[in-house]
Amino acid sequence: MSNGMYAGEPALEAHGLGMRYRRGWALKDCSFRLPAGRICGLVGPNGAGKTTLLSIMAHVLEPTRGTLSLFGAAPGSVDSGRTSFLAQEKPLYRRFTVAETLRLGRELNTGWDQRAAEDIVRAGNVPLDTKIGTLSGGQRTRVALAVALGKRPDLLLLDEPMSDLDPVARKELMGTLLAEAAERGTTVLMSTHVLAELESVCDYVVVLSGGEVRLAGDVDELLSVHTMATGAKEGENLPASLAHHPLVEYRTSGRQFTALIRPEGPVAGPVETDSLSLEELLLTYLRSPDAPPLITPTAQAQDQAYNTRTVAA
Ligand code: ATP
To answer: Which of 131, 145, 159, 270 is deepest in the core (most CB within 10 A)?
Structure first.
């Protein structure tokens, strides 16, 4: 299936997605869309629901509530595109050699790209005749990524994919991933805790916290609607001149205050304003679970009659 088919279609759209485990709700009323061809970082504290969300998208878990569509179709259906999910625990057969693992990938997947998979393995000097069980954690991750990319997916779901790779391998594999995605228009959704890396990798982000979407959208769009305001403190609260702007976080240090706001109109008063990096923006949202959520227009789920799977509440 070629990605050209999906021009203008979101790769992924969730409406009111909810997931309840025995202990309670891990995802609550998640609605957002991810346009096709984007590389999206999925960020959130431990237990936020990232793995749960990725598992629903990979059709490994059934949501308790809500609907999800992949390329306009129900997950798992022939029209939902090819999805590749690399889970955190990277399940591979320990007794297989690397070559046997790739052969299995070829046998199980039409459209398998042996050359791409082997190139990724060879770039890490992982011998093809080595058993998976004797590889280091990072080498195993490389093989798992080779299998994920060898499937030539339309949607690549990665759960903290690079956490056990050394910095050089990490940079190299991230570069390969990005080049592949750009060349083929692959949509990537990747959970990570490494915020510093996201700026150079992702053009889209979704922040989850407490099972809810707190922030979603195009990175440039998100950065452009936030401003960091600093100035001299007037009492304990935000200065009155800024009070009408939606506030994400207010902090004080000595006689100074810093406020992350979403300006609605000009910012008045004796304050300095500055833009901020993606890492600063994400850190601030992660620190501020009570900040008003923001889902930019391109990330908002549309009310449309997709051929989705609906699960009764
Ligand atoms: P981390 O960053 O630590 O990997 P996460 O954002 O991926 O976390 P999830 O693994 O999706 O979070 O977990 C979300 C919540 O759901 C947590 O409270 C977790 O304890 C709970 N949970 C996850 N899987 C199960 C399960 N199989 N049974 C019961 N509760 C679960």
So the answer is: 145
